[in-house]
Specification:
The complex is a heterotrimer of chains A (317), B (438) and C (184).
Chain A (H helix, E strand, L loop, with lengths): L2 E7 L6 H16 L4 E6 L10 H6 L5 E5 L8 H7 L8 H10 L2 H9 L4 E7 L6 E3 L13 E3 L4 H8 L3 E3 L6 H7 L4 E3 L3 H6 L2 H4 L14 E6 H6 L2 H36 L9 H19 L3 H16 L6
Parallel strand pairs in A: 1-2, 1-3, 6-7, 6-8
Antiparallel strand pairs in A: 3-9, 4-9, 5-8
Chain B lengths: L10 H18 L4 H17 L5 H11 L6 H14 L2 H13 L5 H16 L5 H16 L4 H12 L9 H10 L3 H29 L14 H26 L5 H18 L5 H34 L2 H9 L6 H18 L2 H18 L4 H17 L5 H9 L6 H24 L7
Helix pairs in contact in B: 1-2, 2-13, 3-13, 4-7, 4-12, 4-13, 5-6, 5-11, 6-7, 6-8, 6-10, 6-11, 7-8, 7-18, 8-19, 9-16, 9-17, 10-17, 10-19, 11-12, 13-16, 13-18, 14-16, 15-16, 15-17, 16-17, 17-19, 18-19
Chain C lengths: L21 H35 L6 H23 L14 H33 L20 H29 L3
Helix pairs in contact in C: 1-2, 2-4, 3-4
Bound molecules: sodium ion (2 copies).
């Protein structure tokens, strides 16, 4: 029996992330000899980015590739597991947590009540930070007007003394250009560069210090259960390959964009010292606790996460 | 029920044809047009999939009404409703007549200039068409302008909002095509002014060929005292414009916030003129509620239809249409333009962008064209979609506030020459890309 | 210059609900002021946000979400408001050619079709609300925005949309009955 699934991405069509996700969709067909085909649609084509979970549960979509934090409004736990600001300094650390540290089981537990099955995890990597003023450390964030996405990231910046401004992605460019805001969380360095963010904000911070989203690949639980075990195995494996492919490709693109930015002479790329990064992480961890108390699941995420980080020496006791 | 899934038998080609035919037929029966698109979306959700697909429509409606960019629509409409209820608009046009009244078509040309200024204040259309429809149209009619010319100027001028930066069309294109939004804005600036220039030239030609279309001020020149008295009418509106543009370009407010600055400015103007009353604000706000109800529900219908069409495989369908059309890049490009025009007759630009850009942009790039230039061409093409029947949003927006004796038929008839001018602008942009990318 | 600037314009006709909309139409029309004032409040909130951010460097975390919420409910209610006033734009190409009897028949059929669609959408909105107002465990949990402020606006707009669609269904039913009776 053959299976065909319709997935929606949280990225627009021309975004490099979408291109890589599309390669994943093609790889699924290849690896399963055409027994499973995945049609990948760009963001908003069927429903909005933060409505895919409901659409999958309702059987309108079959699956999605999306930043889990978009569902923080349903349960704060989604926000905490998707972007524990400061927890990871490298994508591999997060992958290890998901695969061996109990992250997969947590995601299963969080998604199952909503009728979704967690297949695997990816990430675009550490996002770069867009700024039109030089930022060398936490001190420089004081009073900085910045656009940050919903949830924990915004909270952490506020705790660091910045003034987070709520703005939709579509207004980030003009607002940076005209100086309504000083800085913004946007995307990885290469995407920021391609979309001209550095033309209006010449002081990017790279590598970023603030955000590395957990991108989940998941699908309708009932439809997943219909799959024979061998296909399930191949699907899970394909996501692992996709994740490695994504971080490698984007890192390469980031490097190319970085060279271009440095060569331009007009853009100054800032890199925070380990000390400053640690300071920011310290502030972030204070905010984790505040999210943890908001729901039972969030507390569970907090306990598992801090347990794993301590055990592996990623944070001090 | 047997009906569920039945439409799949038609295939996507047949279903697309049926969808457009159904839109047309239901439209002329007199069903409110917002409900026509919603109804067609519902029929195809049920007929292609079944009841389980219907929540996708309500989900899209929710996302549509809770999107930040649309906040500027009620702001512009409120501004228009307050202006309309005060004497500001009348005094403004009397003053404008003083300065442009002796030039044939002068008031229409000044209206186009006002439209360009409004376009620089806003990234979407809707609010501007309503504003010009409430303010400029009655004034032009009062001054004896030809009805069709006046309607065309108001609609086409109001639609410039997405052609002159800032522009949500260009922003969405930039996100979809992963090109620089700043480059797009820079590239769109001259083409936007060029299009406005076409409108001005058209007004001048028509007015001089047939002087009855645009009467000029007769009689002796006004005395200096009279001129000064009338010029006062310009003072407050210009101050409001400076306030809004200044807050955007001075980095004080975002584009959406600036629309609220405009409302505040207009309200303060009525206070200065001694016209402000609670009753005026109440009536203006109620009119705003009604007008945005009409405008937004047209958008709601459109967004529902696009979601259903995409779920049916619309993107794949467009992709199949375009592949293998020709090896000649120019032919492919022209075919794309034709396809955008046809889609523009029935769908709104967001839907068209979602449907076509994932397919068009990679092809354009691989053929060696500049994606920034293509973004401007796309944006120019979408100008036609706002005006073209049977689904021309700008025409509907104008209808929502136009005097009742102006029918939709009148509006669409008046728009035909302007659609021609827009097509000309698209052609010029394709023939001379340097207009955008210099 | 012969323009008379002192002429007093008569109070303009602001329109009202059509008689066929019945008691519900009148109620919908009266409640409209709540959402109309909401638009003015949204404007004031945006202004205070600009002032606080630009002059005091203290942007709020609630202004934009509240503005979007106020506009969103006004948009949704505006559709219902126009239904009661029959002010939604209609293409009357054929309709205007009809005699009074056929026209009435058209009005009845259109109201029934729109009513059935609205009923279907109310049901679909209920499916949406059942995920936005309740946690999977069944307890009441209104969907939040997930922002730092984290208001329940998304859940509220979804519930409001369902209610408005429900009222719209009833309104169309009343319209159909009154058109059929030929009540003026
Ligand atoms: Na504009
Ligand atoms: Na059109």
């Amino acid at each position: 029996q053959d299976y065909s699934f319709r997935f929606q991405s949280s990225d627009p069509a021309g975004n490099p992330n979408f291109e890589l996700q599309k390669q994943w969709a093609e790889s699924v067909a290849e690896l399963t000899d055409g027994r499973v085909t995945v049609e990948l649609l760009p963001v908003d084509s069927i429903v909005a980015h933060n409505e895919t979970q409901d659409a999958i549960a309702a059987g309108i979509l079959d699956g999605h590739i999306t930043d889990t934090s978009y569902f923080a409004g349903k349960d704060p736990a989604f926000g905490l597991i998707a972007n524990p600001v400061g927890a990871w300094s490298d994508p591999q650390q997060m992958f290890d947590f998901v695969e061996q540290g109990g992250g997969h089981e947590l995601m299963d537990e969080l998604l199952s009540p909503y009728g979704l099955e967690f297949i695997g995890v990816s990430t675009p990597g550490l996002e770069a930070f867009v700024s039109n003023v030089p930022l060398e450390g936490v001190e420089d964030l004081k009073g900085l007007k910045l656009r940050a996405p919903e949830g924990l990231v915004q909270q952490v910046f506020a705790a660091a003394g910045a003034a987070p401004v709520n703005l939709p992605g579509s207004e980030v460019f003009t607002s940076l250009d005209k100086g309504v805001i000083d800085a913004a969380d946007y995307s990885v360095f290469s995407v920021n560069h391609a979309q001209g963010m550095h033309d209006v904000a010449a002081h990017p911070v790279y590598p970023g210090f603030h955000s590395m989203p957990l991108v989940e690949v998941s699908m309708n639980e009932a439809k997943w259960d219909e799959l024979p075990d061998d296909l399930k195995g191949i699907m899970e494996e394909s996501v692992k390959q996709f994740a490695q492919n994504q971080i490698a490709s984007l890192k390469e693109a980031d490097q190319a964009a970085l060279e271009e930015a440095n060569a331009s002479g007009e853009i100054t790329v800032h890199d925070w010292s380990d000390e400053e990064r640690a300071k920011f992480r310290q502030i972030a961890m204070g905010e984790w606790e505040k999210v943890a108390v908001r729901s039972e699941n969030a507390q569970k995420v907090y306990d598992t996460l801090t347990g794993y980080l301590t055990e592996n020496g990623l944070i001090a006791e | 029920m047997e009906f569920f899934g039945l439409l799949q038998g038609l295939g996507i080609e047949g279903a697309t044809g049926l969808m457009f035919a159904m839109l047309l037929v239901l439209l002329v029966t007199g069903i409110p047009l917002a409900y026509v698109t919603l109804l067609v979306a519902l029929i195809f959700a049920l007929g292609w999939f079944g009841p389980m697909a219907v929540p996708l429509i309500t989900s899209r409606v929710y996302s549509f009404v809770s999107s930040f960019v649309f906040v500027s629509v009620p702001m512009f409409v409120l501004m228009a409703a307050i202006l309309d209820r005060s004497g500001i608009a009348r005094d403004l046009f009397d003053a404008m007549r003083l300065f442009g009244g002796r030039l044939r078509g002068g008031i229409a040309i000044q209206t186009i200039l006002v439209a360009v200024i409004l376009a620089a204040m806003s990234g979407i259309i809707g609010g501007e068409v309503v504003l010009l429809g409430l303010i400029a149209l009655p004034q032009m009619l009062r001054l004896g302008y030809d009805k069709n010319l006046a309607i065309g100027v108001v609609c086409a001028g109001g639609a410039l909002g997405t052609m002159v930066p800032p522009s949500i069309v260009l922003i969405i294109y930039g996100l979809t095509a992963n090109v620089s939004i700043g480059d797009l804005f820079t590239a769109a600036f001259i083409p936007g002014l060029m299009l406005a220039g076409f409108y001005v030239a058209y007004v001048l030609i028509r007015a001089y060929l047939n002087p009855a279309m645009a009467p000029v001020v007769e009689g002796p020149r006004a005395s200096t005292a009279e001129k000064l008295r009338l010029a006062k009418g310009l003072f407050l509106p210009i101050l409001v414009v400076i306030g809004v543009l200044g807050s955007i370009y001075g980095g004080i407010a975002s584009v959406t916030e600036a629309s609220a600055v405009g409302v505040l400015g207009v309200t303060l103007s009525t206070m200065i003129r001694g016209e402000f009353t609670i009753g005026l604000m109440k009536a203006a706000a109620l009119q705003t509620l009604q007008t945005v109800g009409m405008i937004v529900w047209i958008g709601i219908g459109a967004t529902a239809l696009v979601g259903v069409f995409n779920l049916m495989g619309g993107i794949k369908f467009v992709s199949a249409l375009i592949t293998g059309i020709s090896d000649e890049p120019v032919i492919v490009l022209l075919f794309m333009m034709a396809l955008l025009f046809v889609l523009g007759m029935f769908l709104d630009w967001v839907g068209i962008a979602l449907l076509t850009m994932p397919i068009f942009v990679p092809i354009i790039t691989s053929m060696g064209y500049d994606p920034v230039w293509f973004g401007v061409v796309f944006c120019m093409n979408m100008q036609m979609s706002f005006l073209s029947p049977p689904f021309g949003p700008a025409a509907f927006y104008l209808k929502s506030v136009a005097p009742p004796d102006i029918s939709l038929g009148d509006i669409f008839r008046s728009l035909l020459p302007f659609i021609g001018l827009q097509a000309l602008a698209v052609a010029v942009l394709i023939l001379f890309p340097a207009i955008a990318i210099y | 210059m012969t323009e008379d600037h002192t002429d007093i314009t008569p109070p303009r006709d602001e329109g009202g609900p059509i008689p066929e909309a019945g008691w519900l139409g009148r109620a919908i029309d009266r409640v409209g002021i709540v959402f109309a004032v909401g638009i003015i409040i949204a404007m004031l909130i945006l202004i205070q946000e600009v002032v606080l951010r630009y002059f005091f460097n203290r942007p709020t975390i609630w202004a934009h979400e509240t503005t979007v919420f106020l506009s969103g409910v006004a948009f949704v209610y505006g559709g219902l408001y126009c239904t009661a006033r029959d002010s939604h734009i209609r293409v009357v190409l054929i309709y205007d050619q009809l005699g009074p009897k056929l026209r009435r028949a058209f009005d009845v059929v259109i109201s029934i079709i729109c009513g059935l669609s609205a009923a279907m959408f109310t049901w679909a909105a209920w499916i949406m609300v059942s995920r936005a107002a309740f946690a999977p465990t069944g307890e009441i949990r209104i969907e939040r925005s997930g922002s730092a402020w984290n208001p329940v606006y998304p859940g509220l707009i979804k519930i409001f949309l369902m209610l408005v669609l429900g009222v719209m269904t009833v309104q169309f039913a009343i319209l159909a009955v009154n058109y059929a009776r030929g009540r003026r």
